[in-house]
Amino acid sequence: MNIDSNFPKNLPPQHQDKQPGCENLMNPKPIYNLEGYNFPIGKLKDKVAIITGGDSGIGRAVSLAYAKEGAKVVIVYLNEDEDANITKKLIENEKGECFLIKGDIGNESFCDYVSVEVIKRFKQINIIVNNAAEQHEAQNITDITQSQLERTFKTNVFSAFYMIKAALPHLNNGDSIINTTSITAYNGHETLIDYSASKGALTTLTRSLALNLASKGIRVNAVAPGPIWTPLIPSSFDNAKVAKFGQKTPMKRPGQPVELAEAYVFLASNGASFITGETIHINGGEFVAT
């Protein structure tokens, strides 16, 4: 089975008024699991992974893929209880173990709390996936308020600093940090100005930390999605833009979360033991200057 036969080319117009959006309200639902897209062989057996924004969208697909590969999954989410509990149930249906922690990753003390709770429960941390994000359209830079700019950077950049700082004392040789950046970090975006800037910062953080942590054997990489059908889309754009979302890619459709999950598995696995400071671009054929 493939994505094209399981997902419509044209999306129904829709909008959600609250970020980061609720997957359960989307039509159609994002594809986070599909026969033929995952052949688990225990690549992450006995690993403990913290995944921010792991309740829905890309995070849900990664959480489920990690659980299938044998990892214990800690999902950190803001307030989307229904989505988080659905993902937890999906993982448990695969005989996996999932631990939910609710709170604001833009708060450093909360990230410290996450690290303490994970160590208390699992005694180790091996993988950090900084995936949670928010974005807001603005027609002009003058429309971006100080509070919006600070909020975007707190969620998209500061949270990665905080989560990594909190977990780093528990990471060892062979462990992995993976950041979700964006095609907008490379190509820019006309109306996602502060979001693009934050993803550019996250891209450079990936490269700098890769150099800084190489001597410890801790790898730092990134995945840069193009247009992917996640709750962030209907909660960011109006009806008309959602209906055309992803159609400008060479593949003429948005990507699905399941189509990114294997990249995150690979980067966290021993198969990527000599890869650090790199970004995997998954964008349906949109070429970027790296």
Automatic annotation (TrEMBL):
GO terms for biological process: bile acid metabolic process. GO terms for molecular function: oxidoreductase activity, acting on CH-OH group of donors. Residues 1-20 are annotated as: Disordered. PROSITE patterns: ADH_SHORT. Keywords: Oxidoreductase. InterPro entries: NAD(P)-bd_dom_sf, Sc_DH/Rdtase_CS, SDR_fam. Gene3D superfamilies: NAD(P)-binding Rossmann-like Domain (3.40.50.720). SUPFAM superfamilies: NAD(P)-binding Rossmann-fold domains. PANTHER family: NADPH-DEPENDENT ALDEHYDE REDUCTASE 1, CHLOROPLASTIC (PTHR48107:SF16), NADPH-DEPENDENT ALDEHYDE REDUCTASE-LIKE PROTEIN, CHLOROPLASTIC-RELATED (PTHR48107). Belongs to the short-chain dehydrogenases/reductases (SDR) family. This is NAD(P)-dependent dehydrogenase, short-chain alcohol dehydrogenase family. It comes from Clostridium gasigenes. The lineage of its organism: Bacteria, Bacillati, Bacillota, Clostridia, Eubacteriales.
